[in-house]
Amino acid sequence: MSLATWKDAPRVRPLNEAPLRDGPYILCWLQQALRAFDNPVIDAAVRLGNERGLPVLIYHGLREDYPFASDRLHRFALGASRDVARGCAERGLACVQYVDRAAKREKGLVYRLAAPAAALVLEDQPAFVAQWQAERVAARTGTAVFAVNAACLVPPAALEQGVGTTSAFRRRHEKLRDAWRDWTDEEPSVAPYAGPLPYEPDHLGSMDDAASNALVASCAVDHALAPSAMFPPTRAEVLLRLTRLRDEVLPAYAGARNDARRPEGASTLSPYLHFGMVGPREIMGAIAEADVPDESRAKFADELLSWREWFHYKARSLPVPENYARVPKWARATLQAHASEPRPHLETLDALVHGETADETWNACQKQYLLDGWMHNNLRMYWAKKLIAMTPDPDTGWATACYLNDRLSLDGRDPSTYGNLAWAFGDAAPGYGDRPIYGLVSTRTDRSIRERPNGPEWIAAAASRPTFRLTVPDKPPVDPYLTTKLPI
Ligand SMILES: Cc1cc2nc3c(=O)[nH]c(=O)nc-3n(C[C@H](O)[C@H](O)[C@H](O)COP(=O)(O)OP(=O)(O)OC[C@H]3O[C@@H](n4cnc5c(N)ncnc54)[C@H](O)[C@@H]3O)c2cc1C
């Protein structure tokens, strides 16, 4: 692959030393970047295919045993995958899918698809299962494997390495943004792959909602965790939200962002970003058209580009980004020094999951995760800080925060999940004074939520939303990400 001459070269990383070879196709394995357009993973595969006169075979598979597998996450991923199939057909690309279930069990499918391929192109994701899956396949297959960053506007490798603070990152990142903003979908110059396959694919693209839901119902996942009505998993919904962002959210964003009661303060794009149904380039294109002062655009871009991409950048430098060890030493030490202090607000995991604790504001926050599969940013800050005092010690606090965030939130299991949780546990400037339970780590009260006009009424209504019940263990799993690394 003539990598060095590609404009996108910093997005692409070879994962093994296997040579490119002859084969019937370039395999493009989509793990999380579930979009057919503006997708650097697909574009890299198509460019490589065009260079070698080969078609691309796009593959998406969904196992039933990933950590926290549920109806909510499965329906979202399969909805996204369905639109990938339809979009690929529009682009003249063959796309095959597989949904793992008892009635149709395929073993080692990625290896079997990769075995004859000239090369395998997959996504470079630094958290959750995609990274270890990619590394494992790269180590075990004889096929050349390339990982492509699709999540960021500026690929982390294009930045100087070793940047240590958000402000230093922001300064460097801002200088590179214009160079990475434009893209053109790569046109395949070869007819779609129509040759033999080692299995009978599922055809999600031709399924209606009823068939797709029936398919999810046949999978052994947590069906008690209902899908979120707030986040339909379709590209049509993404496009509606981009229009809403341009016309309603951006004009109000700077003033409304910290007020959870004002819908125009949130784009609600994070689930779609997490599952790669939209990328930052397309979002930046949408906001370029907004009739708003530059400051409004800049405020939004700072969240989407500085903060989100900082956490992606940072996750790449950590061996296990999900681990509590990422919290600075001083913060872990001060929390540990206070670990044996009495917790007047100690809660069971069941009460936490269901938002049935003694803290009404916290319950209002948690009900958003439980029922909507998403929480407003301002509430997440209070929610995470307070959790430290509701759990017996900081390690359990971290495991609980990851468990609640990752099991319930559509945008969980993301570099932004662990980066923001680390902020709550002390990855920021110390607070003022040495306090009970928190030590030097800054705390947060619910005053800013409660003292808004009609704040108490809003909290009471949000906390009392009726809910369903989930099965909850006594304790959160300590390291679900490592212990559930099953063979692929
Ligand atoms: C304790 C805690 C846990 C969090 N967990 C997650 C998580 O699991 N997944 C997740 O994507 N975000 C997480 N965030 C960041 C932020 O709260 C959400 O991204 C945001 O609320 C999503 O809503 P939105 O799309 O309407 O955001 P908007 O305000 O519309 O922002 C647009 C986009 O910018 C990005 N963004 C905004 N704020 C942040 C931030 N603080 N850090 C990183 N990116 C940001 C998101 O991609 C978001 O979709 C967390 C924040 C906190 C304080």
UniProtKB/TrEMBL annotation:
Residues 24-153 form the Photolyase/cryptochrome alpha/beta domain. The lineage of its organism: Bacteria, Pseudomonadati, Pseudomonadota, Alphaproteobacteria, Acetobacterales. Its cofactor is (6R)-5,10-methylene-5,6,7,8-tetrahydrofolate. This is Photolyase/cryptochrome alpha/beta domain-containing protein. Gene3D superfamilies: 1.25.40.80, DNA Cyclobutane Dipyrimidine Photolyase, subunit A, domain 3, HUPs. It comes from the Bacteria. PROSITE patterns: PHR_CRY_ALPHA_BETA (PS51645).
